[in-house]
Queue: 2 jobs
Job 1
Amino acid sequence: MPSIISVNDLSKTYASGLQALKNINLEIRRGEIFALLGPNGAGKTTLIGIICGIVKPTVGKILVDGHDIVSEYRAARSLIGLVPQELTTDAFESVWGTVSFSRGLFGKKANPAHLEKVLKDLSLWNRRDSKIITLSGGMKRRLLIAKALSHEPQILFLDEPTAGVDVELRRDMWRLVRSLRESGVTIILTTHYIDEAEEMADRVGVISKGEIILVEQKAELMRKLGRKQLTLQLHEPLKAIPEALTGHRLELSADGSELIYTYDTQGERPGIAALLDDLDKAGIRFKDLQTTQSSLEDIFVSLVREEK
């Protein structure tokens, strides 16, 4: 799949001497949902700001659908919609007025039908004549998305779009994101809700201390780095793991009632079969078993911990 955003050898050092980004190389594929994960201060918002033309890079080159973000700023920026973290809007403007103004900023001709569809998709149509100051926090968050979509961008950046919003609004937003992706829009999101990235993303990038430490297909990442646990509930508690089982990666629960076997998701059927055989030989009986698998959050935490 061709790239719609190419980031090459990008670094950013602020006047204070803080190096926010270090030699970033990243390709965002056309039509994908890409989740950028990282702890606070990792550089996520700085990277998005540079791609969107809000922050000036120190060195490096970025192309947006082939347009250089510096020398072809207008062409590059017109392709991008940005939903920022901050709720910054003109409090005394109307909903309709602010989305119409946002569209006009990009030199787009008036298109009331498009704006009507966007507002209806975001459940704001009935509030189109309301002053922004009268909207709830959740509605203001929806309005930021409406403004970002007003000029029909091909790329949409969502910087912590569901921070502080209720569960219903989160579901509405992700429904809209899916429909946008189906229409060909490329979505790049940062989120603290890693379950959202796990559900929505096609690929995942992890940034830590200003450096991209991993970019991977979500399913492949979970296959490579995920872990499964097989928990055996024993008929009789054990005081310790028998010597005959020390060759297996086993843990004994605090009360001795469960044996926990950890293995990678690439598959260890021979290991499991050998474990069950050794349990039988040792006379250890179990009454139930269950498996659990690492979530994307578990993987993310382990990756960031390794970088410290």
Job 2
Amino acid sequence: MKKSIRYQLMIMMFLEFFVWGCWYATMGTYLSKIGFSGLEVGAAFSTVSWGAILSPFIIGMIADRYFAAEKVKAVMHIAGAGVLWYLSTILDPTAFFWTILVYTIMYMPTIALANTISFNQMEKPEKEFPLIRVLGTIGWIVAGLILGFMKLEDSHIQFQLAAGMSLVLGIYCFFLPPTPPKPLGKKPTISDILGLDALELFKSRSFTIFIICSLLISIPLAFYYAWANPFLNEIGMQNAAGKMTLGQASEILFMLLLPLFFARLGVKKMLLIGMVAWLLRYLLFAYGNNEELVWMLYSGIILHGICYDFFFVTGQIYVDNAAPKEIQASAQGLITIITYGVGMLIGSLASGWVVNQYTLSDNTHLWQTIWLIPAGMAVVAAIVFMIMFREEKSPT
């Protein structure tokens, strides 16, 4: 890969996750401030999952078959910028839900498109992708630091900042390396158009177990994204958004070490370590506090590098290796629909219900009980994966 193309992809990843990082981790704090209930906050976070569920259809119908991926990505980000700006003006829970749903349907496919554009330029994704993807983590960190130091965690300005950067990214996408649709060599069928060809990967037992466990671990994942920032703010941690970026800092470290871990550990051990890390994180949150046990909270935050890289980034590379080249974009869409889609949809709605159940009359929460619930979910996912997954020596 040419250096110029590598730098282009790095900038793309930086902007992609900067836009998301501007509002996703702190939206729960903002919505709680303006009077949304736990269920309404959970519903707002569930829109990300609905966007992820629909993204493979958008990719299968457009990016894989008819239009260049970078142009589809550009249009979605430019349109999304307008929706984000409007979102910053809404105070009604119902209107907010439908508006952010429109936005997430446009945004979520762009994650898979970013991966597709990147993988299309690579000869050895397991060595080249981590260096590209790490810039996305840096983008998320920069967004979190800006929100924390400018005290915007509970402000509507977070959506306006995301809107401005979404517009910049949309324009930038027109200058990315061409990623044309892949010719089928035959008349497209309904299965081709909807991207259902990726379902052939379920013929592999290991791939099926991987998908099932990805679904299971994504349910507790939603608890962290929706409620970690409100939790840390409620127990008195100052500049919580800025301190949460320690998790992304550790993500950078482990992202850069991924090639080494691949060689030493293999796919199964890496995925299992990632799942166990989610269990440990929630235990640390459950039993830590903002006083003498504050180190437990910091440890739970810093574990994000292992939690995310060892399971989700490793999973993306595993899927890319498992899928034939002509359906790689659809396969990336499939893992998106399972993790950020179905799994986090269940998790977002469940987390909203759980938080509502453990909300006290003074609007504080029984956080220890809340965090022990996703910890139990992570245990189940890890046990199923450890027993049933068999690592294939040579992926298809």
